[in-house]
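Title: Comparing notes on inverse folding

I've been comparing how different people in this forum approach sequence design from structure. To keep things fair, I'm posting one structure and asking everyone to reply with a full sequence. Here's the target:
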């Protein structure tokens, strides 16, 4: 697996090399901008204060098709408790091209038809081709859990039910109010 973005790569390496008892420092996720289905921008700063789960997926990705309904269930369960789920479509090819308008024109109709076919109501976001290339995510799905400050808590390439359950548990712990006092 090749992850070219330095923050994502360093997080995955630090987590793999750290002793089980050590908590590696949480790096900030890159300040990317994503777009809703109408092309309106959304920056990750807009979700600061909430626990945020980013899920990068594509319609052609078999594991993504299994994971998306599970993410919708997770959002239905924990959204009211403060979890923000951003399902970010990666159907378009990464490139140095700027702007999301051409991507929405070509990819969105295909994504909309897919969502209707699988009966998903999860809000979908898009990333412009340049940002997609800069992130360097080359395995889908790719899920990142951010704490309330926008720092990476978990970065998970691929899908498994066990990993999704772990993400749920970690998200719940992040959503819990901090303990008060020393006893």
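Reply #1:
Here's my take.
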């Amino acid at each position: 697996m090749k992850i070219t973005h330095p923050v994502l790569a360093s997080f995955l390496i630090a987590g793999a090399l750290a002793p089980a008892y050590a908590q590696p420092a949480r790096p900030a996720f890159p300040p990317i901008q994503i777009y809703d289905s109408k092309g309106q921008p959304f920056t990750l700063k807009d979700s600061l204060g909430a626990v945020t789960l980013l899920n990068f997926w594509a319609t052609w990705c078999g594991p993504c098709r299994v994971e998306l309904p599970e993410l919708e269930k997770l959002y239905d369960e924990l959204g009211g408790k403060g979890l923000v789920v951003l399902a970010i479509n990666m159907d378009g090819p990464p490139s140095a091209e700027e702007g999301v308008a051409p991507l929405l024109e070509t990819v969105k109709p295909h994504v909309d038809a897919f969502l209707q076919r699988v009966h998903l109501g999860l809000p979908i976001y898009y990333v412009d081709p340049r940002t997609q290339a800069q992130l360097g995510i080359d395995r889908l799905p790719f899920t990142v859990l951010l704490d309330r400050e926008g720092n990476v808590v978990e970065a998970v390439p691929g899908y498994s039910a066990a990993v999704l359950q772990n993400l749920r548990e970690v998200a719940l712990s992040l959503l819990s109010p901090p303990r008060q006092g020393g006893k």
